[in-house]
Amino acid sequence: MTDHLTLQRFSLGEYVLVFDLDRSILTCRARGEGQKKIWGKKLKDVHYVERVLEDAEKYYVACENGEHTGLFLALHRDTGATAWFIPGKSFLQIIYGGYLYLIFIDDREDYFLLKVDREDGRALWHHRVEDDLYEYCFNDGVITLKFGSGLTKSLDLGTGRARVSP
To answer: What is the pLDDT of residue 66?
Structure first.
């Protein structure tokens, strides 16, 4: 019998995603009485699910398997089949303006902000960010990043390039 402490639950609309930490299995169940199983998927080498986002077609699952390692998965909502994935551990996951914005850490422990196409997982641009990022704000085609060092960066959402303030 699986102990409830080894299960992570993510309530998403009419469904619940349940990750069994002991068996590394993600299950999609209907909410409500009986919680009918919709699909199940083995997530090889995944130790923990950090966060789940959703849109009308996919679940986006941020997975961890180490302090600086993981996997970001896009799963079809109806079947659980993998649409695409990005290797690496993501620290920020947000859907804004029809795109995914993710912060990943690489094997050198450098952090990068990526703008990702939700359809195919293609990175449209990336920008290196410092590890002391504490605030971000989307406004007027720009993402403004604030860092503990006092640095503030404004990036153009279309290109990822830094904007110069007038």
So the answer is: 83
Q: What is the pLDDT of residue 67?
A: 81
**Whole-angstrom Cα distance, residue 31 to residue 166?**
51
What would the DSSP string read from start to end of 54-105? E-SSEEEEEEESSSS-EEEEEEETTT--EEEEEESEEEEEEEETTEEEEEEE
* Residue from 153, 123, 156 nearest 135 by CA: 153
Domain ranges of the chain: 4-129, 130-166
Convert the pLDDT of each residue in 40-63 to its tens digit.
999 998 999 999 999 999 999 999
Strand partners of residue 9: 18
> What is the architecture, at CATH level 2, of domain 4-129?
Beta Barrel (2.40)
